[in-house]
Amino acid sequence: MQNENASELNEEEVLLKNIEITKRALDTAYSNFDVVTDPELIDSCIYEVKAMQLKYEYLINQAKQMNIIAKIR
Question: Cβ(52)–Cβ(25) under 8 Å?
């Protein structure tokens, strides 16, 4: 029983870490979008922002399904 709790806690920690990493990647993608001027790079940044948004939403939904409540910085 204790191993199950430790495993669950570990899974929660991993998920929260992935959310934090993805949030930083999303913030970076927004920052890159703000500074690029080349049309091809703008397109690339748009795709990157959208990809990070979708990944972030997916991870948040996973956390909700697992009833994980945490403050995301």
Answer: yes
For 4-30, what is the mean pLDDT?
87
pLDDT digits (tens, 9 = 90+) for 32-57: 999 999 999 999 999 999 999 999 99
DSSP state of 72: -
Q: Using alpha carbons only, give the angle 6, 24, 12 rounded to the nearest 5 degrees.
A: 15
What does the block give as tokens for 24?
């930083």
- DSSP of 21-48, one letter per residue? HHHHHHHHHHHHHHH--SHHHHHHHHHH
Rounded Cα distance, 71 and 73, in Å = 6
* pTM exceeds cut of 0.90: no
Residue 31: exposure state from Cβ atoms within 10 A (0-12, 13-18, ≥19): exposed
- 66 contacts 12 by C-beta, under 8 angstroms: yes
